[in-house]
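WP5 quarterly update. Target: 3-oxoacyl-[acyl-carrier-protein] reductase. Source organism: Actinomadura napierensis. Length: 228 aa.
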Amino acid sequence: MTGGNRGIGLAIARELAAAGDAVAVTYRSGEPPEGLFGVRCDVTSAEDVDAAFAKVEAEQGKVEVLVANAGITKDTLLAVMSEESFTSVLDTNLTGAFRVAKRGVKGMMRARTGRIVLVSSVVGLLGSPGQANYAASKAGLVGFARSLARELGSRNITVNVVAPGFVDTDMTAVLTEDQQKGITAAIPLGRIARPEEVAKAVRFVASEDAAYITGAVIPVDGGLGMGH
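Structure tokens (predicted):
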């Protein structure tokens, strides 16, 4: 899985490992998580992605489950958003998912089985001021996933989206108390999610129990985005 050394990604990696899967995670900076096979990879580079897959395949064999989680934010209002701020977010969050899916699907097609899970966001469906770049990238994952679901269904490969809401991670920890209160007031369940709650949804759609689910967008957002 991509972006697996902290936050939601690390929780997903640990959840899959607890289920008995051999898990490999990519990370762009820092150190790999303890107890997991880590490969340094920048998903904005096709060469990096190819090299990372080669290392994982040599260590663990063919990739049966691919989770595309790597993502960045560069929040600012549209009127002052630079072109680089827009395109770099798209390049990591959306085109990065394209790069890893394209590389990963080759082995799945030969094996005639596989699971692809793309981690989107409630923001991609609901919208958020100052996040036009991020929301566009996360919304794009839905169309990407559903197109792949139609392309790959005959090969017994499922492609699904998990769309978290606000989650207790380093990214939300920087919000002020007033900001957090405003967010939780809009969430029907009245709290933000734990990373493990997102991880369990990913684990489900990656499992045999979800063999007849494809092209789905599964919200883990406490009801924040319902109806979208």
